[in-house]
Amino acid sequence: MHHHKDCTPTPHIEAKKGDFADTVIMPGDPLRAKFIAEAYLENAVLVNNVRGICGYTGYYKGKRVSVMASGMGQPSIGIYSYELFNFYDVKSIIRVGTCGSMHKDLHARDIIIAMGACTNGSFAAQYRLPGTFCPIADFDLVRRAAAIAEEKGLTYKVGNMLSSDTFYDDANSALEWAKMGVLGVEMESAALYCNAARAGKKALCICTVSDSFIYPEENTTSAERQSSFTKMMEIALEIA
Ligand code: HPA
Questions:
Q1: Is the pTM of this model over 0.70?
Q2: Other C-beta atoms lying within 10 Å of the C-beta of residue 49
């Protein structure tokens, strides 16, 4: 779809123009969006609930901020981030997700700040570029996230992520990407970074390691994934 100026509400978001803050924090899971709004935001108002993709706008330490879910995978975050950047004038999107890790120095609950996002998907084919585009995060958001992680004494790494189109991968190919130093695998960052680049906006993905390909015994449960990722959310809220 091409970009028209005033097409709010959009096919996927019922909010009115102006309902979103300049920065949107974006977990994959709608229940996590609700959790962030209830636990951290003051005066949070529900601005979207189409398909249960809840979006809220409220205040964190006096600053207006929004939180909305992306759903899972590049097609899903591709739709929501496109509409937020291009139709709601959102300036920055900070994805807060979980990932698997292929790095020996990263364990469950450690943090990856995705400076770049490799992919096995074809999201960037639409741009018809005569080569391979490198989806990257906004440098200012990266350095602020790293500074906060440092200050909080968290175990984190900044580097490449793999945005995979398959969670259940027949070839177990995440391990192939590890030989190129790729730290983790999730399913959304590359599309988010492409949309930010195309719209001239800013994006970052911060992930908590939920499972390790090196230490499978450490894997977290879905209940832990729902509520135990406060550190990452605090980083996102601080830089918002
Ligand atoms: N693969 C893809 N996405 C993920 C994973 C994984 O192992 N863990 C959390 N999100």
A1: yes
A2: 14
